[in-house]
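User: TonB-dependent siderophore receptor. Structure?
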Amino acid sequence: MARTGWTVSYSKAFWARRALFLASSTMLGGVAIGTVSATAAPVVSAATQSFQISPQPLANALTTFGIQSGWQISVPDTLTAKMNSPGVAGNFAPDVALSRLLAGTGLTYQVSGSHSVIIKKVSANITLGPVRVGGTVAHQDPTGPGVGYVAESTMAGTKTDTPLTEIPNSIYVVTKQLMQDQQPQNVVEALRYTPGVYSEADGNYSNGGGIIGSAGGILQRGFSTTSFVDGLALNSASSGETAFIERIEAVNGPASVMYGQTNPGGMIGISLKKPTDTPLHQVSLGFGSWGRYETTVDTSDKITKSGNLRYRVAAIGVTSGTQVDHIDYHRVGVLPSITWDIDPKTSLTLLGMYMYTPGDGTNYLQYPICGTLIQNGNCRRIPRSTFTGYKSYNEEGQKEAMFEYMFKHDFNRFISFSQTFRYEKSENNTENTYTTGYDGSDVGLRPWSIHSRSTTVGLDSRIYGNVSTGEIKHTWVVGSDFRQLEYMQNAYYDWTQDYTQNLYNPTTNTPVCVNIHSAACEVYGSTGPYNYFQEGVYFQDQIKWKGLSVLLGGREDWVNYNQKRYSVNNDNSSHTITKSSLGKAPEPQHAFTWRAGLIYNTKFGLSPYFSYSTSFIPQGGSTDYLGKPFSPMTGKQMEAGLKYKVPSKDILLTASAFRIDEDHYLISDLEHSGFSSDVGKVRSQGFEVSANANITKDLRLVASYTYTDIRFAKTNKTAQRVDIYGNSYGDAISEKGKVVPQMPRNMFSVFADYTVPTTIAKGLGINWGMRYVGSNYVDNVESFKSPSYILFDIGAHYDFGQQFSTLKGLKAQLAVSNLTNKYYLTRCDDSFCYTGQGRRLYGSLTYNW
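Assistant: Predicted structure:
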């Protein structure tokens, strides 16, 4: 491109334009447009400065920026014609302020001097991910991979592109780099080092692919959680496949204003991989413990020369055993996507997914306390590999397909529209056994056969924008979303005989009969459809005045569900099947939730905040003695904290204290036997501290400490305590004030990765991590505890291209979790325990080109 038509800082004064034009011409003399000069000094982020640039035409905004920052901006007239800037107000490093001025314009900037940059189209040859200037990230994609172990902005907390330091509640991001260094094989493992999250409560229950919908085995601030993918609730296993994921976010605390039906502990936000602005080509071959072999492919590139049409394909194929004999994990899946930048103001992204998992690694076979928590002469340790089921009846698999689109359009500089739609279909087939009880070294089993299918449709539409009233800036959102789930299940259980297995000498070849049409079986089961529909309308306003940010939001939700279930009995003498209804459909429910918070960004990086937020969960299927359905469980949280972004460093420190009350917890109705009353309360309170840091370009670290005290604050329920052998003793005592079981009070973790200086071992990096999980009670009256445990993780990676130019792009990786192979229990009830994962090794060779 010729230099004519370029201006600097977009001053309209003729002599200023000409003088700056000559300066830019000199500056660009040794630089081909679109390529950084080899001799150009990098832009170094200075200390923060005050910027007050209102939304206006982009040309004028860049002129004002040049005056306020002292930077030189070179840009062709044609790029900014008819474009508007959202503006920027507050204290920022100049590079950060410039990135915000360019947000939504389809433009970025390129370094050309110590305080000089060139404005250019995003589709030009830029680097993948955030732009890094002088060691500081200029702007991060709020749904992208982050940089190192640090993410600075998010969409999960507010559904707007907002810095974490401007949101008055706790949000923690698991970046792509952290996942690459730790090599987790599902989302549960990826969240191991996240504050406020107990991610492996179910131990080896799920040895394979990962969570489905409800994020099973994950507790946030003591409550179960829900996963949302690209902002919509998911009901299939793609939410647990790390090969398809760009980043993971834990939003701790109530999130109902933005997401509807969620528990007060929070939600897990997951971003799927989408087309990148620059070419990406990667293939990986992996191997690991228990015979794991895996291959993944991740490729993205332009379809059109201009780059306005791009594609990405992520795929995985894996076969593996698990630490439990005869329980395997097998999966093939593909996630293709296309992004079309229709014009500078409009874009459309289409995603599809198909996943076939004939063996998902689920282990329904719990082990009794005798042999796990108790280990002595009468209770020999039960090996983690013990399989007590039947090899001939051992199937657990799924098929999932999904289609999603994400559409965005900017009407003008004040109003934009975005919409996300997803359709997904899942099928599940289960034919195996689960644990029912134990007697000494014998465990009772119940064979079952479950065939289910579900269809989920979700849509989130919102209008949002920016408007300024004097010095006050508003980022507002008004939206509506809905989710419809249709679920059909046929479940049958074999009651022909009492099946038992000896834990130390199982006979795994015993035949099992669960054929509903067989006269040899007497089967009880249930069948019927389940339909669920939720719709919500929400609003939010983020108000900024100088360093103060205020967040206000509210939402009304309507929930309607219909369940027509029938019991099924097979009379093996007459070969007839009879059905009887198992209950009527619950009444529709609705709830209003809201939140308010404020956070103040000081000039030296410290941001104190306070917030109040609410949540709700419907309670269907239960009624009081008058037949009236119970109100939804409602949660409310107060949270106060500090966030500290070290100036000019990729270091984010956070600390928060919280108190959550969940009301309408069901307790016994003492006046009407057999019924419940909804006047109970559970209270969770505690604090979290964390650090996410790219300390140097070679040293990265995450660390956190979590304290969670969750108790039954109000209840009339009572129970007898039991000893460790299951014997009851004493009088029944009240559960009021007792700790809610199976949630550790204390958790601490630290993980660091260090790339060795090139003078010592060029291309070599090592990492190390430690996880401490405190003890937790087994029942509602604090009878006894599951013990605490400490685990160690190590790893190494080697970039062959650093030492051998012919091997550029080739990288080897090794990760070992639970290095000492510690035998530990994630949690127990008063009869059974969940054993944790033993030492697991995973290595891979990855090639990028």
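The first strand starts at residue 6 and ends at 8. Residues 1-46, 123-138, 208-215, 572-578 have pLDDT under 50 and may be disordered.
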